[in-house]
Amino acid sequence: MSLESLAGRDLVSLLDFSPGEIRAILTLAAEAKANPGHYARALDGKTLFLYFEKPSLRTRVTFEAGMTQLGGHAIYYSASDGKIGVRESVEDVARNLDRWVDAAMCRTFRHELVADLARLSGIPVINGLTDRLHPCQALADYMTMAEVEEELAGKRLVYVGDGNNVAHSLMEAGAKLGVHVSVVTPEGFAPLDEVVRACRDAARETGATITVGTDLSLVEGADAVYTDVWASMGQESEAEARRRVFLPYQVNAALMRRAGPDAVFMHCLPAHRGDEVTDEVADSPQSVIFEQAENRLHAQKAVLLALIGTV
Ligand code: CP
Ligand code: NVA
Questions:
Q1: CB of 277 within 8 A of CB of 93?
Q2: 165 in Cβ contact with 132 (< 8 Å)
Q3: Best of 53, 166, 230 for a ligand 2 pocket test (most atoms within 8 Å of beta carbon)
């Protein structure tokens, strides 16, 4: 029932989906991972447009490979080919895309650009990361956590570092899945208040809790410790200043010991090893970072199947 309701929809924020819809995507992702052959022709003749204003390894390759594995095709188009809203209005781009392709994935600086494309076009628009959110990453992350934990509801994920796009989407998806999410940042780098408030509202339905703080003791007893770069794409000029502020929040062996031996270590990648995470942690048996990267492929195949509406 929940998959049917996703056909033709956009994925801009995971708060737009119900808990049942997110669970249905994760179930389909696990099924597509276990039986890839079953979906090999599911998107036969379908085309996905990929728009990037920022660099990418995982998002680009997993969406392109995912479309190939589903029998469809992806077209990569970067801002240097023609910036949406600059070379041509957002509305006209949306109306052109409607005539040619079956879905679009967009990675932009301004979150509103993806929201506008979704509103103005009739095809499903998928957020491939904005300055505010990274929903496809969070889907892959909770899929990975579910492979370790079996039942996600009631588990604790503690994100340590910058209260950024990845932290926001982990809170949004966690709220919908009943996962208790804590975001621990240096003073002044907390997630946006409005995102925290919206996640707490969503969490009422599932019993999840959303905690924001600066105290690293929040990692104690975590099921997952998660970090991301201290300076995101577009913040490169702040990297040096941020390094000094964030160093106490590095995820190293001492911090993982405070979490406990059963905690997994998670990172969306790319990692700046030696900054937000040490090699020792990234390459430890507790680390699931390459499982997360693999699951981008499976989670996004499920998103494409559900939104293009062939399952
Ligand atoms: N995690 C992630 O989105 O990686 P890329 O920036 O390489 O796509
Ligand atoms: N927060 C990072 C995530 C990269 C996948 C960034 O926006 O650069």
A1: no
A2: yes
A3: 166
How far apart CA 204 and CA 27 sit, in angstroms, is 23
- For residue 105, the SS3 value is strand
Question: What tokens were used for 193?
Answer: 């208040």
Ligand 2 binding pocket mutation candidate from 232, 267, 269 (most atoms within 8 A of CB): 232
Give residue 78 CA to ligand 1 midpoint distance, Å: 15
Q: 3-class DSSP state for residue 252?
A: coil
Given a cut of 60, is residue 1 above it in pLDDT? no
Give how far Cα 41 sits from Cα of 84, 105, 136, 215, Å.
31, 20, 22, 50
Number of H helices, E strands in the chain: 11, 9
> How do beta strands 264-267 and 224-227 pair?
parallel
pLDDT in tens, 71-121: 999 999 999 999 999 999 999 999 999 999 999 999 999 999 999 999 999
Q: What is the bridge-based pairing of β-strands 210-213 and 47-52?
A: unpaired
Measured between alpha carbons, how far is 217 from 280 in angstroms, rounded to an integer?
Answer: 21
Query: Per residue in 185-243, pLDDT tens?
Result: 999 999 999 999 999 999 999 999 999 999 999 999 999 999 999 999 999 999 999 99
In angstroms, what is the span from residue 274 Cα to ligand 1's centroid?
A: 19
Q: What spacing in Å lies between the alpha carbon of 180 and ligand 2's midpoint?
A: 22
Which amino acid type is present at position 89?
A: S
Residue located via tokens 């924020």:
13
**In a 3-state reduction of DSSP, which class is residue 184?**
strand
Within a 13 Å sphere around the CA of 108, how many CA atoms are in the beta-carbon half? Answer: 22
For residue 2, the model assigns a pLDDT of 82
- Note the pLDDT tens digit of each residue in 136-153: 999 999 999 999 998 999
Residues with CB under 6 A from ligand 1: 56-59, 129, 137, 268-270
73 three-class SS: strand
Active site residues: 107, 134, 137, 228, 268, 296
